[in-house]
Amino acid sequence: GQQLNQSPQSMFIQEGEDVSMNCTSSSIFNTWLWYKQDPGEGPVLLIALYKAGELTSNGRLTAQFGITRKDSFLNISASIPSDVGIYFCAGDPKKLGGGADGLTFGKGTHLIIQP
Amino acid sequence: DVKVTQSSRYLVKRTGEKVFLECVQDMDHENMFWYRQDPGLGLRLIYFSYDVKMKEKGDIPEGYSVSREKKERFSLILESASTNQTSMYLCASSSGTLVTDTQYFGPGTRLTVL
Question: pLDDT, tens digit, for every residue of B66-79?
Fold first, then answer.
């Protein structure tokens, strides 16, 4: 199946620092999604991107859909303790009317904030 | 808000037992999915369903089956549990009517098979 390369695998940062993570693929996706998973919980959708070049913000989070449709990044500004968790990117290759299918997920970026 | 619930947060079963994991969504979504999540492997799709009584294999269907008798409910069945099925199981649903297939997840069931 399709593969998503997500990096970095983990990040150790100080509170207040900005965070950047990205996903790349060898194939094209028509949607990019970013999820956050807290320990012991299911992933929660943070941002959805539907158009190449699209830049979308959700509070301190900003994500972009790469022009080539093969990559996306997520930035978190001024990190706070509750930002700790695992962040997943996910890609959907389907076009309009393409029917249901599973998303392709990256393996996650584990964000750890040091006091 | 979309709500996806899973019947148990934690389960402990013995090898060879038949295990049922239940998932219910309250948003009239067409599509439902079962994933398992393991350290270093990310989320892997087991089965999905795009309509009542319809099912499709995902990437790792071996050892699992599913049932979707009602639109809101999607069950994952382990016919004979094995220790390598110890994992976090996540259910998701999506509307199926949009351009994209944005999925909403339940809280997960952590299954331990002894």
Answer: 999 999 999 999 99
